[in-house]
Amino acid sequence: MPHPLLEVDNLTIAFPHQTAVDGISFQINPGETLGLVGESGSGKSATSLAILRLLPPTANITGSIIFDGQPLLTLPEPAMRRHRGRSIAMIFQEPMTALNPVMPVGAQIAEALIAHNDGIHHPELSRRAIREKVLAAMHEVALPEPERRLHDYPHQFSGGQRQRILIAMAIINRPRLLIADEPTTALDVTVQAQILALLNDLRRTRGLSMLFISHDLAVVSQVADRVAVMQHGHIVEQAPTHQLFHSPQHPYTRKLLASAPTMQTDRTQPLATLA
Ligand SMILES: Nc1ncnc2c1ncn2[C@@H]1O[C@H](COP(=O)(O)OP(=O)(O)OP(=O)(O)O)[C@@H](O)[C@H]1O
Ligand SMILES: [Mg+2]
């Protein structure tokens, strides 16, 4: 057994008036994608923010989160800052709000590169080297005509292209773990499929591990090796994706399967997404 890249053990997140996450445990192995699925308010985003230690101080967090052998919850802030955006990167649901509307996208991708390089691991990068890395990242996420679009602003791109820009920013420092929180929810179905295909490509070419969060089990099934189902702060079921689909154990999982909006309902047929 390889040792897991991420080990979450008995994680509890309590806000002043409610417990958002109540003793969950899961692991992500190198190169593996874990899907975290559950209805709104079940604690998915709180979990991902706890991994990056981005929850507000009002959150009382207990349990342990171990990344590559290092306990994150007790790590001094400067060491945590070095993980954030570098070994662990994150992409969110709404690409427009995550981008700066008044800065050209090339500059924003460059900023993601520079902000997470402290000069120890990457000696001073020349302007030209930065430009080349930015163009390579834009190319890798299949943004058309990167040279020409470098100086364009976020509003000049489509929703799907903006999500590609955010993915470029997330991968430019070669993270080992990518946390994707509802990365395709704001996109229409065709564009969503393209972004999922891109994430699958990146996994394969980069051996990236991923925590993929969605309320949509059908979407999760297209990228996840295993799925953890969350309800009211608990993981009620955790299984390899095909097993979860073909023999769901928990009533809530069955309910999610039955109500998944983009899923075919004929269970006698194999699911297209699992081919
Ligand atoms: N900063 C906060 N302060 C207080 N309560 C919070 C905070 N963040 C989240 N919560 C609460 O914790 C619970 C879990 O929220 P979380 O954002 O993790 O849900 P989610 O599963 O990501 O939902 P969604 O699918 O809508 O994104 C919710 O009841 C929410 O109101
Ligand atoms: Mg959320």
Automatic annotation (TrEMBL):
Nucleotide-binding keyword on record: yes
GO terms, molecular function: ATP binding; ATP hydrolysis activity
Main location: membrane
Domain called ABC transporter: residue spans: 6-257
GO biological process: peptide transport
Bilayer topology: Peripheral membrane protein
Key words of the record: ATP-binding, Cell inner membrane, Cell membrane, Membrane, Nucleotide-binding, Translocase, Transport
Cellular localization per UniProt: Cell inner membrane
InterPro entries in UniProt: AAA+_ATPase (IPR003593), ABC_Ni/Peptide_Import (IPR050388), ABC_transporter-like_ATP-bd (IPR003439), ABC_transporter-like_CS (IPR017871), Oligopep_ABC_C (IPR013563), P-loop_NTPase (IPR027417)
GO CC term, one of those recorded: plasma membrane
Family: Belongs to the ABC transporter superfamily.
Name of the protein described by the UniProt record: Peptide/nickel transport system ATP-binding protein
Species this chain originates from: Edaphobacter aggregans
